[in-house]
Amino acid sequence: MNNSPIATSIFDLFKIGPGPSSSHTIGPMKAAFDFLERLSVLSEEILKTAQSIHIHLYGSLSATGKGHGTDRAIVAGLLGWQPESADPVALMDLLKEPTVTYPVRVGECVVELAPEHIHFERKKYDSPYANTVVFQLRSATGPLFEEEYYSIGGGFILRKGDETVDQPVAPIPYPYRTMKELKARLYDHQLSLEQLMLANETALTGRSSKEINQRIDLILEVMHKAVRRGLRQTGILPGSIKLRRKAPVLFQQARGLAQSSDSFLIFLNAYCLAASEENAAGGIVVTAPTSGASGVIPGLTYLARHHFHYNKPTLRKGMWAAAAIGFLVKHNASISGAEMGCMGEIGTASAMGAAFLTHCAGKSIDAVEAAAEIGIEHHLGMTCDPIGGYVQIPCIERNAMGAVKAYNAFLLATAGTPANQKISLDAVIKVMKATGRDMSTKYKETSEAGLALSATEC
């Protein structure tokens, strides 16, 4: 277990950026931007001999990086683009022409970046994380400056030499590492979950309560915009699979069956597919907790807003519960598909969604824990085996299935006495971590096994 307290901002968990993958698109873009900033402080003596930048991708970044747009994301970061402000259309246009080079400006110098400078390495690399990228500034005679980064899921990155992923920048008033500790803080201080989370967030970010609430509202709006765009868009998704969008068809079916008992589920499926298809198309989405799982929470919150008619304070309340579960999984296991398989992405999103629904309904923290535990428990062992390296099959439908499981977990957790739940959330997260560790690497976002091997049939 990580012995430091959880010190992650809700806005680091829920990040705005382009699809299709937080670990393969947003993370590498952030790493490239960070490398660019570090180049800017090098001496003129070093920079005047620089001729090229080379990027070496390892692990899943190499195995599925092409389908996930990792190369485009790295070029974007070296051009100074940031995930939240990147133009998704311009991003998709990068590297379309193999002869085009890109000028990377470093101080007064310009270094040309060409497609052949991005190396998808197939050899093993001694690294503590599955997704590793090494940037090198080179002269004619060899490397001048080098940095190594790890993309650890959900768009989070770690630079080699950094001591911790979550390093508190200020004292946290209510530190916790586990659900057991979180519940103890709530009981000891007689706080609601959102009060505790808001106090910690204020200490971490220095933002006021008003600013934090406004930012959560923005996150929800970006999620819901992705749903609305996905419900309108038709046609074929990018990539060699030629997968046709399904969300608009489902949405029309649901509207036509408004009086049917099936319409509720069809609406939920449509909302989740809509956001997930937007992610697959490289549109702007919110990591929840990853881009590959960015259809579950948007679908459930859209349902809560438009079918349950929950107001903004209630939706914010649910988002704090979802964040708490995401923090606990990230801190004590991983939300990365390359580390945990799909249970790290969809499994975590489903648990977060179950917690969201339960807390919005005004249920106890014990019920929130039970719902999240059920959500993870029934995703244990789920592999990440995307066909062709694209975040499409089985990823898009898994978002819908994860949301349905989240809703059922909410029903199961609130049907009886939550305290009677035999498995704690902390216990199932430990099992999740052990399962991810034991899972064969080829089932963890490499497209080398499972459904990925059926690519020739598509």
Automatic annotation (TrEMBL):
<keyword id="KW-0004">4Fe-4S</keyword>
<keyword id="KW-0408">Iron</keyword>
<dbReference type="Pfam" id="PF03315">
    <property type="entry name" value="SDH_beta"/>
</dbReference>
<keyword id="KW-0312">Gluconeogenesis</keyword>
<feature type="domain" description="Serine dehydratase beta chain">
    <location>
        <begin position="9"/>
        <end position="160"/>
    </location>
</feature>
<keyword id="KW-0411">Iron-sulfur</keyword>
<dbReference type="InterPro" id="IPR029009">
    <property type="entry name" value="ASB_dom_sf"/>
</dbReference>
<dbReference type="InterPro" id="IPR004644">
    <property type="entry name" value="Fe-S_L-Ser_mono"/>
</dbReference>
<dbReference type="InterPro" id="IPR005131">
    <property type="entry name" value="Ser_deHydtase_bsu"/>
</dbReference>
<keyword id="KW-0479">Metal-binding</keyword>
<dbReference type="GO" id="GO:0003941">
    <property type="term" value="F:L-serine ammonia-lyase activity"/>
</dbReference>
<comment type="pathway">
    <text>Carbohydrate biosynthesis; gluconeogenesis.</text>
</comment>
<dbReference type="InterPro" id="IPR051318">
    <property type="entry name" value="Fe-S_L-Ser"/>
</dbReference>
<dbReference type="InterPro" id="IPR005130">
    <property type="entry name" value="Ser_deHydtase-like_asu"/>
</dbReference>
<dbReference type="Pfam" id="PF03313">
    <property type="entry name" value="SDH_alpha"/>
</dbReference>
<protein>
    <recommendedName>
        <fullName>L-serine dehydratase</fullName>
        <ecNumber>4.3.1.17</ecNumber>
    </recommendedName>
</protein>
<keyword id="KW-0456">Lyase</keyword>
<feature type="domain" description="Serine dehydratase-like alpha subunit">
    <location>
        <begin position="189"/>
        <end position="452"/>
    </location>
</feature>
<comment type="similarity">
    <text>Belongs to the iron-sulfur dependent L-serine dehydratase family.</text>
</comment>
